[in-house]
Design brief:
alpha/beta, Metallo-beta-lactamase, Chain A, Rossmann fold, 3 domains, 8-stranded mixed sheet, 15 helices, 23 strands, globular
Length: 532
């Protein structure tokens, strides 16, 4: 019995772990990396055709996004998941293939001009179409035999519709062990979904630690926050523009907006329009409302049983085509616009920002994490101008963030989930978190729960039967990429500071000569220091 850590080892994305047991090779998740590598990746130890089955915790691309690549290269076994995960993958993987196709066209135009070899995407839409029939769906709590000596049980992880922790019971050589993969664990008391189900027993645990070094704090009043932002913006005659991830976060925001509409919390604006402008988000929203009661929390289930759509309401308008999207900004009625991508790096949201950022009566509301260097983070950090489609856009709109809303468990929830085990596991493996957080969270588990922990590197191998690490994995960082990413983020902050300085200078126009001379001397001294 051996575990090989192939992805999200001391990194946040690209989840993938290989279990070799009972003569079978079983892959738990197979995600795309999103963002720069921290460590060199190790190759999968077997060919795709030699993988016997895949167990998928949930549909997010950093957990599912490389499965069609395996299929394109010979994989033909079953993919076990929940039904909701299968349905979401049917649209998310197609969207991923479409985006890769567009990127390939762009790269190949550049390659042709430069005389470089052509670029081939990881997979195509045809590969996704070959992938979907391989899905075999399971219900929560169902014990599923996936091979002789190996059974799996999916447990509600509360992170995304259909997300699961996966419990594997393995019997080999007369020895039985229980191996538990947390998948991505959800925050508690969120709209739509139940809280993560706590496990009962495990000999070994692989746990995510995205927020293993921090607490979300007390649960904020999401409805109250959102109501204040909408009311003040509509009162000014502006639009509320919400960049939102198409699957998960968009549906949570729709749930909150339904409550606001139902309770008539917004005064003086009647049935104000809410535009959902993202084809992927619209398809995902249809899936959320399509007989998915198995995955809802009690409050949402009660709404459904009462004949109420939990994420629909009067005034909700859907924009599918690009022409429909363009018309949204031609309509001067104050409105809410929800669009992707969530970090403003691509998609229709950039057009809405172009039309609304310069208007001081508007608000841009962030409802999800914004990574360093992304346009969303640059706006959050106070940029006064940004460039969109080659045009300089002044940032006069209010920039707001919905506090406390997160799809991931914080350190307290993670420890509570792990501490519910009836006895201490032989080992806890920490993954799906940044390099420094891995060490912090592993130490926290050891200190607080007394469990033996390990934060494995990419390519690390662990013999479960002998309970020992047999290969340490790749411990060498990609220094150039790390330095480049950090330098870019630091330089962005420097630029913002420079823009702020120019604003301060302008505010001192007409000031006393003595004060202006002193200010000038200070700036010149600072410039001399750094003009190397």
């Amino acid at each position: 019995m051996k575990l090989t850590f192939l992805g999200a080892a001391r990194e946040v994305t690209g989840s993938s772990t290989m279990l070799s047991a009972c003569g079978k090779n079983i892959l738990i998740d197979c995600g795309l990396e999103q963002g720069p590598d921290i460590y060199e990746n190790c190759d999968c130890p077997v060919n795709p055709a030699d993988i016997d089955c895949i167990l998928l915790t949930h549909a997010h691309i950093d957990h599912s996004g490389k499965i069609p690549y395996l299929v394109a290269n010979g994989y033909s076994g079953p993919i076990y998941s929940t039904e909701a995960t299968r349905r979401l993958c049917s649209i998310m993987l197609l969207d991923s293939a479409y985006i890769q196709g567009l990127e390939a066209e762009w790269r190949n135009r550049k390659a042709a001009r430069a005389g470089d070899p052509p670029y081939t995407p990881l997979y195509t839409i045809a590969d996704v179409e070959k992938t979907m029939p391989l899905f075999s769906t399971c219900s929560y709590g169902e014990q599923v035999k996936i091979a002789d000596g190996i059974s799996a049980r999916f447990i509600d992880a509360g992170h995304l519709l259909g997300s699961a922790s996966i419990e594997l019971t393995i019997t080999e050589g007369g020895k039985t062990i229980v191996l538990l993969f947390s998948g991505d664990l959800g925050n508690v008391d969120r709209p739509l979904l139940r809280n993560p189900v706590k496990p009962r027993f495990a000999d070994y645990v692989v746990i995510e630690g995205t927020y293993g070094d921090r607490s979300h704090g007390e649960r904020p009043d999401y409805v109250g926050q959102l109501t204040e932002i909408i009311q003040s913006t509509l009162d000014r005659g502006g639009n509320v523009v919400i960049p939102a991830f198409a699957v998960g976060r968009t549906q949570e925001i729709l749930y909150l907006l339904r409550i606001i509409k139902e309770r008539q919390l917004i005064k003086g604006h009647g049935d104000f329009p809410v535009w959902l402008d993202s084809p992927l988000a619209i398809e995902a929203t249809h899936i959320y409302t399509d007989d998915m009661t198995e995955y809802y929390d009690a409050e949402t289930l009660a709404l459904v049983e009462a004949g109420i759509n939990p994420i629909s309401f009067p005034g909700l308008r859907l924009s599918v085509t690009s022409d429909e999207s363009k018309l949204i900004n031609e309509d001067k009625t104050p409105k809410i616009i929800i669009s992707a991508s969530g970090m403003c790096e691509a998609g229709r949201i950039r057009h809405h920002l172009k039309h609304n950022l310069w208007r001081q009566e508007c608000t841009v509301l962030f409802v999800g994490y914004q990574t360093e260097g992304s346009l969303g983070r640059i706006l959050q950090d106070g940029a006064k101008t940004v460039k969109l489609f080659g045009e300089k856009i002044a940032v006069r709109a209010r920039i707001e963030t919905l506090r406390g809303i997160s799809a991931h468990a914080d350190v307290g929830i993670l420890l509570d989930w792990l501490g519910s085990l009836s006895s201490a596991p032989q080992r806890v493996f920490v993954n799906h978190c940044s390099d420094d957080v891995c060490d912090v969270f592993a130490q926290t588990i050891s200190d607080r729960l007394g469990y033996r922990t390990l934060a494995p590197y990419n390519g690390a191998e662990y013999d479960l039967a002998a309970d020992r690490l047999t290969a340490p994995g790749n411990m060498v960082k990609i220094k150039k990429e790390i330095a480049a990413a950090r330098n870019q983020a630091a330089f962005e902050r420097l630029l913002l500071a420079g823009r702020r300085l120019l604003e301060v200078i302008e505010k001192n126009r007409g000031g006393a000569n003595k004060d202006l001379a002193k200010f000038t001397a200070q700036i010149n001294a600072l410039s001399d220091k750094w003009d190397k």
